[in-house]
Amino acid sequence: MNEQIKQIAERLRGLREALNISIEEMADACGLTPDAYRETESGTVDISVSLLHEISQRYKVELTALMFGDEPTMNSYFITRKGKGVSVERTHVYKYQSLAAGFAHRKADPFMVTVHPKPDDAPIYLNSHDGQEYNYVVSGRLLLQINGKDLILEEGDSIYFNSALPHGMKALDGKNVNFLAIIL
Question: Where does the chain have alpha helices with state H?
């Protein structure tokens, strides 16, 4: 598995241990079985941003601290220069680049997301998390599935949705899709 995923898993384990929470309690808080949560902490399976968001909200830690290992310190403003945001590539399908990693106590988490194409018959991985999400397609065409409904978004299209509904995405036309995602 990707080295970045292993590092995120280590941070999750460190958080759980620092809070003196059992695996069973953390699994229950995440809506996972204890075995599934153990796998998450092992660093051998992909860890969804939605799961990290849920943990960050519940235990009052910065999402970017879990994803990237750095605590944000800015509280007036934070600039992310083009192509310079800290990023994590989950498996080889999604790449998340934080656009506000250095701003402390954010009310939203903005990311530039790149979705790499995969075979047409590959399933869409679904996830859900509390809150809402806004996506704006910068380039490419995106198949976004929300609660069983397939929606196609093209360059310039945007969508705002209830992120508690199962949702997932897939790049179309064999090309990368880049979109702005804001998780609230």
Answer: 3-18, 23-30, 34-42, 49-59, 63-68
Alpha-carbon gap, residue 21 to 128, rounded angstroms: 23
Cα radius of gyration (the chain):
16
Is the pLDDT higher at 3 or at 149? 149
Which pair of tokens denotes residue 57?
């909200």
Please report, as a single letter, which amino acid is at residue 161: F
Place of tokens 């620092």: 18
Q: DSSP for 92-109, please give it.
A: TTEEEEESSTTBTT-SSE
Q: How many Å apart are CA 182 and CA 160, to the nearest integer?
A: 9
- The C-alpha atoms of residue 102 and residue 90 are separated, in whole angstroms, by 21
pLDDT in tens, 23-80: 999 999 888 899 999 999 998 888 888 788 889 888 988 888 888 887 777 778 778 7
- C-alpha 94/C-alpha 61 separation (Å) is 23
pLDDT-derived band at 86 (thresholds 50, 70, 90) equals: confident
Q: Is 118 exposed, middle or buried (0-12, 13-18, 19+ CB in 10 A)?
A: middle
C-alpha 81/C-alpha 79 separation (Å) is 6
What gap in Å lies between CA 56 and CA 63, rounded to an integer?
5
